[in-house]
């Protein structure tokens, strides 16, 4: 019976659902191809502005964690263990270096951190924001991290994945 309906639609000139889906995929692939052709690869030593900002932010986070530990700041009344400082410092420092050198893996890693930040902020907004100041600060964090993520996507497309040998 379903086949009869599809045959009737074809006689009427209307496309079948499968034909509509295939036409939609073809249009999407054409748009993707045009977008890829419109991108210019980075020149040697070139770095998109958002990637530069990401490198500076990552470097500042790494430096602030290390400086905070060295001056003796306490977290919840206790001084953190060296491993609790070393891991985020090395992670953010390595990411800052990779972003500064416009490496694909660093841009992708920074985007992952932005997504985690966005999810955490949404959860905090839904579950824990109790005052107007908390809601405002969380919405501000979402706006900044979401905008940062948006611009990082195009930059990542320009950075291009490294070719395998």
Based on Cα principal axes, name the global outline. Answer: flat
Give the rounded overall mean pLDDT: 86
Per DSSP E runs of 2 or more residues, the count of β-strands stands at 0
Pattern of helices and strands: HHHHHH
Q: Show unreliable segments.
A: none
Helix content: over 70%
The number of helical elements comes to 6
Gyration radius over CA? 24 Å
Relative strand content: under 5%
Query: What is the terminal separation in angstroms?
Result: 54 Å
Structural class: mainly alpha
The profile of the biggest β sheet is: none
Task: Identify the quaternary structure here.
Answer: single chain
Task: Summarize the SSE layout with pairings.
Elements: H1 2-12, H2 17-38, H3 49-70, H4 82-100, H5 104-127, H6 132-159
Helix pairs in contact: 3-4, 4-5, 5-6
Structural overview:
There is one protein chain. The protein is mainly α and 165 residues long. Helix 3 runs antiparallel to helix 4 and helix 5 runs antiparallel to helix 6. The protein contains 6 helices and no strands. Helix content is 76%, strand content 0%.
Summed up:
With about 160 residues, the chain is mostly helical. Helices cover about 75% and strands about 0% of the residues. The mean pLDDT is about 85.
Keywords:
165 residues, 6 helices, mainly alpha, 76% helix, 0% strand
